[in-house]
Specification:
Layout lengths: L3 H11 L2 E2 H8 L3 H17 L4 E4 L34 E4 L1
Antiparallel strand pairs: 1-3, 2-3
Helix pairs in contact: 1-3, 2-3
The protein binds zinc ion.
Zinc ion binds next to loops.
Length: 93
């Protein structure tokens, strides 16, 4: 039987998804998705793969959170201070 993490890895190898899509597909809470992601990043690194976080963009001013290493969505934009932000998306290559 595949573990949740293995199933998430299989999904992200296949296509780009955000935490909400992963939680709906897997039937787990979004919070649990964020808990699994750092472990997934480590286990795919061991397989010479990489978990990519597509940079979050501010939907109000276009600011891109380029160097963000965390998996969760940022709270607000440092440039325009609004919280109208895109969801981070994940993909495994
Ligand atoms: Zn902004």
């Amino acid at each position: 039987m595949e573990t949740i993490r293995q199933q998430i890895i299989a999904l992200l190898i296949d296509k780009e998804m955000d935490a909400r899509e992963l939680s709906q597909t897997m039937g787990i809470r979004e919070k649990e998705v964020y808990e699994h992601l750092p472990h997934i990043a480590r286990s795919v690194a061991a397989q010479k793969k990489k978990l990519i976080i597509k940079p979050v963009q501010c939907l109000a001013c276009g600011y891109v959170f380029k160097d963000r290493k965390r998996f969760t969505r940022p709270g607000r934009c440092p440039r325009c201070k609004k919280s109208h932000l895109d969801e981070p998306k994940y993909r495994i290559f």
